[in-house]
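Provenance and format

Records in this collection were gathered into a single text stream. Each protein contributes a sequence line and a token line. The two records reproduced below are adjacent in the stream.
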Amino acid sequence: MTSEFSALLKRLRREANLTQEALAERAGVGVRTIRGLETGERADPRVTTVRLLADALGLRPEERERLLSTAVLRTPGGEVPDAESPAEPPVPPAAASAPEPTASGPTASGPTRSPLHEVLADVADQVAQTVAARWRREEEQRQVHDPYPLPVRWRPVAEELTDHWANIRRLPPGSAPAPLELGGQLDAIVNVYRRIPSGRLVVLGRSGSGKTILAVRFALDHLKARGHADAVPVIFSIGSWDPTAITLRDWLAAQLRRDHPGLAAPGPGGTNLAEGLVETGRILPVLDGFDEIADGLRRPALEALNATTLPLLLTSRPAEYAAAVAETDVLTSAAAVELTDLTLDDLAAYLPRTTRKARGRSATGWEPVLHALRERPRSQAGANLAAVLTTPLMVTLARAVHSDAPDGDPAALLDTRHFGTPEELEDHLLDNFVTTAYRPRPRPGSGPLRAWDPERARHWLGYLAQHLNRLDTPDLEWWRLGYGMRRTTRTLVTALVIGLTIALVDGVVGTLFDSVAYQLLDGLVAGLLTGLLFGIAYWFMVAAKDAAVEPSVVRMRIRGGERRTGRNPLRRLMIGALCGLVFGVGYGFVRGVLNGAIAHAPLPFVLAGSIGDGVLYGLMFALAAGPALGLLTLFETPLDIRSALNPISLLRTNGRTVATQLLVWSPVFGVLVGFGSLAVVYPAAAVLGPVAWNLTAALKLGLISGLGGALGYAFSLTSWGQWTVFSRIWLPLTGRLPWSVVAFLEDAYRRGVLRQAGAVYQFRHARLQHHLARGPRAPLRTSDPDGSPRGGPLK
């Protein structure tokens, strides 16, 4: 029976002028697979296969969605409906307010909507609501509208940085189109974007020129006018993308799952919701910070972007983008604009409105600065200010330091004794921004902000900035705060914390069964061995791969009929049994060696006993760990799509998940170890001879194993546990972070030093991050106690 998918695939292959063999070679699948799909013999194609075929055919977003939709289209009885005739072509997007068609997002294709289309349309609506709320809150936090947004304007860039206008306007061969009019300002960015038929725009601007503010405004304005079938603009900090390790679409899906953990839930067609949104064109990527990609990766990144036809908006500094273009090519089918500098009129209109008027007169403290810029532009002070106060970043820093601070006299900016160059003036603003941000001040509606010593705060922020520089990413992820250290250091710290924890558990619980003296020794041995074994496991499973333990995308549901994650309990059971076997054999063998050494037994007797103990403990822990881990799978359910709106909520969600896992896993594992030991030891005694084991010993082993095993697993193999080991214990202990890390990060966000980008923090600007990473500098005071301007160091 020929399906709609089969007919559509055959038609698309023929339109691409490809044979079955050629398509199979391009897609990397077998020719028999292609034949089976086109004849209907293979009635249930995998989504990954459909993705490969769509890429090989070079499909447009609407064609890709149509192909994916028909791949999962089924009747209630599970049969694939007949479709002898080729599928109808998709309806092109509406033209919004421009005369030419746009590429702002997919629309309904055909008269009927497939299950995939319906599910993903609803999911996209929920993501749109979350994204809009997130960036509205971020604009408020950064005082973008106080008193009004700084002007952000742009102009077309040089022709060598844009593609041919025929490609941008999607015109047939032989056309000679005129360039599009792309000039504009912040509130018109969506209209400008909609004039571009290809839906691909590059926004260039130097550091601090307002690229991120423009990206946020684009997302919010686009969401305001978004229809149910339109794509959702989502801002991605592209600086963390490694195009040599992961494809663009897979990276976008991974970022969506990070910021919206509920999108990891299974969706129609055997894929997760995040992948479904990306594959069907329901996400409009706003890729912020192309210049933040590592130097050697910008060329492959641009080549990877050119390998897709995704509509997108890309921001970058001009020099980095131009260098990547020189090495390969422009962004295919993309128009480009460049942000312009602020003017003196912009400063004169904005800065006086950011500070209070002096008593008895209408002038403000900014008048001397504006006068110098207007009347003495060639003086050293005027030239320095003219070079610095041309970007929104520097203007907002100047406002924070000299308008918002009670003693921040703007006239201090004219002091050429301390600010002889524009660079020194910029350093002054960056240095004093942190000091100003941490001055005592009230927080509206919530009392005063927490008091932090500015120098200590600067030290901790400097460590965070250096940490991000070492990882070469702008994203401050709480689950990777310890990953700036060497892998060996992380492994040793993890093993040390687990060893001390289990030694404490063993020592305290064991006193219920044995003497304190014996249990102290037993606790030290158990802690040493368990720390060693968990350290080895951590090295091979995490550190050696130089990977992070990612936050969990599930929660635990003991009761209720909610949908499950689709994970296979049998697979988890086998993994758990294997890990338990390895751990038990190692633990039993080492314990046998130590017991033999303490008893001064002959070496052959020690080896025989150690091997026997290794076998027994291996069986005990394998029979316990496998079922316990498999049981956890039955209680896992996907997170809600609106979950984890910010880093702290994601941390708390993972903390609750780990706590519930421990409450389930610890007693189950302990009971299985305890009773499993009896089930293993007594039959083994018939083979090995008398074994010193009884119910009390089984109960003791079960209690200690249940508590110790659960804590060891949590600290080494969960993101919340790694956060606890490094951010709550090791880094504060070594002075690199405060003890109350969560409070510090949240406070830095409220003070405007950090910003939130989904589930991660970022520094307010990359320039501030790199400046803080350079180490402490002496901040400058802006006035003497009597109020006279001064540029001397703060006391």
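Adjacent record:
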Amino acid sequence: MKYIVAGREAVNTAEFAELALGTPLELWFGVDGESEQEREARLDAARDILSDPEFSNLPDDLIRLAARVVEDHPDLFNVVPLVRPARRRMARKGVAA
């Protein structure tokens, strides 16, 4: 299956997410072994990006992307539909006046 976003082909799911979001995933998730100073700089850059009008829809886009992944691959998340119990009416006892 090919993933094509904005005319570019993604070779894996991480690259697909990066192309869909328009930013590198490491910016949001960090990297193993980053120092506190690196973490602060990364979060500061993320805040700058979110304040840019070009990326104002990024949180909504991320939620849509996550929902699509869960919908397309529920087995990855062990998602099961919840069955809503039927409402039962209580029988009224007594005589109407």
